[in-house]
DNA sequence: GTGGTCTAGACCACG
DNA sequence: GTGGTCTAGACCACG
């Protein structure tokens, strides 16, 4: 698992974990139906508390990205078509960043290229 | 000032303020070189703590979006070309959202259109 | 036996088994004095651990719904009139659900109709 | 707050708390828009850990029964009309209990009266 | 062996 | 002062 936690960051560890796990799934390194490491083993690997990993897993379950199977583990869900709610979530997250890019003087072309580039980077490797 | 604060939201008030001020600047409602309302008056308007508005202004200064002139007030900076650092900031903010959209099954076309749409809404609306 | 176990559910398998067996008895599919399948065969059928089926059977015996005859098997009891204790059990189970329905804004008419509907579905279908 | 926790029960403390708080709301003792005690004060009152109360509050928020306002407290939501999902939740909870009552030999009339009685007890005090 | 629950205690961000 | 986050450590239910 290529996960790196910055304990000095002011982003909560469980949020860092959520983001990095999403990144690994987006990059295809963690595949649908593939089991994630147990909360205990991942916590030991990363040197963080079991509860912190557990919170990240539950956050990902809430986002419908994985399914926690009690006493067994967690597996990545196979999502094919985004739901209305998921598109709305992405829109709400995107809004303030687009605004910020405009304020910085970026052009539509630039922000669109950037989004496109990042998309390809995940998809292709 | 068309700012609405949701005191019950779990997004900190100062973050809401930062985002809404960025939105107003992106939409051209607050223009470069235009002075912002004083910390005191904006706080009174919104019914929030003075320190909260102050924190938002300093956050915007840190982002180089406005300039705080002690004893005088704050003015919107005139940003024409994004700096390396600002592009890097936007990239870092965009990354986890693009990843999340991929995990939800969104296509490149969809995410690019969404970014483009949001960009236009600010610029034209 | 029309029993379906969801191994990914967060309801324990033995609880699912208890509920489904109660459902089959309520629907008249399993009849009084009729022997249940052996722990071993049911476990094999469902692909679950023998101990899990055993635990479910003992839970049903504790509820006085079936009788386990050691070395022989389990048979459905013929219950005609509910005991005080059974009515008390049902009351205790019902209480928090009625409370939750009230909190959700349901009317007495609605909850009573729902109970009545579910009753008929078991009895007639 | 008339809440009693049984530490010896095998029902998790946070579940007991959830049920009792729902009961207090159903009975109108806790009213819509009324603030609940802080997690710390309620935990101290009941002699349980802060995190346990916190978990109960979050569970009630998930059920849309209250709203947690970070740094401020929690307030009871004002629910007027049950959503589809809430009716479905109640139905799923009711099902196995209705089945169990049938197995015990209860008649439709009895179970309906019981539901009606419990409803009235909450509503009228 | 796994996740679930709970405790005790700590520091922090927000306002 | 509040909830949010995190840790360290414990016992338990399930299977």
TrEMBL record, chains A, B, C, D:
InterPro entries: Tscrpt_reg_HTH_GntR, WH-like_DNA-bd_sf, WH_DNA-bd_sf
Domain HTH gntR-type: 11-79
Pfam families named among the record's database cross-references: GntR
SUPFAM superfamilies: Winged helix' DNA-binding domain
Keyword Cytoplasm in annotation: no
Keywords: DNA-binding, Transcription, Transcription regulation
CDD domains noted in UniProt: WHTH_GntR
Protein name: GntR family transcriptional regulator
């Amino acid at each position: 698992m290529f996960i790196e936690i910055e304990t000095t960051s002011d982003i909560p560890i469980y949020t860092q974990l959520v983001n990095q796990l999403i990144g690994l799934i987006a990059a295809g390194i963690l595949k649908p139906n593939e089991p994630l490491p147990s909360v205990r083993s991942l916590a030991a690997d990363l040197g963080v508390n079991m509860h912190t990993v557990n919170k990240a897993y539950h956050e990902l379950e809430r986002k419908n990205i994985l399914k926690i199977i009690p006493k067994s583990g967690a597996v990545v869900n196979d999502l094919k078509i985004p739901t209305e709610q998921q598109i709305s979530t992405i829109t709400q997250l995107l809004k303030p960043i687009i605004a910020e890019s405009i304020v910085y003087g970026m052009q539509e072309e630039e922000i669109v290229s950037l989004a496109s580039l990042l998309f390809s980077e995940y998809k292709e490797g």
